[in-house]
Amino acid sequence: MLDSVMFWNEPNNLSHWDFAMDPDWQEFSQMVRWAGATVKQARPDLVRVMGGISPIDPEFIV
């Protein structure tokens, strides 16, 4: 039984997402928005969260 969905763990970790190919994070944000909307439509009861940020790059959010 699913009670939540996490989208894309550690996107700032190069092994999980090649942010050099998407420096403005446009593709990434479009995919996460699409996935969130799709899950909401199919299962509005599920909690939707963004994956955690990797500690390898603490300046990522700045």
> Helicity level, as a percent range?
25-40%
N- to C-terminal distance: 37 Å
* Number of alpha- plus pi-helical segments: 1
Ranges with pLDDT <50 over ≥5 residues? Answer: none
Pattern of helices and strands: EHE
| Total E-strand runs | 2
SSE class: alpha+beta
Shape: globular
The average pLDDT value, as a whole number, equals 87
Task: Order the strands across the largest sheet as they lie in space.
Answer: 1-2
Instruction: Describe the largest sheet.
Output: 2 strands, parallel
How many independent structural domains?
1
Radius of gyration: 13 Å
Query: Strand percentage, roughly?
Result: 5-15%
Task: Describe the protein in words.
There is one protein chain. With 62 residues, this protein is α+β, with helices and mostly antiparallel strands. The protein has one domain. It is 27% helix and 13% strand. It contains one helix and two strands, in the order βαβ. It has one helix spanning 26-42, and strands at 4-7, 47-50. A two-stranded parallel ribbon has the order 1-2.
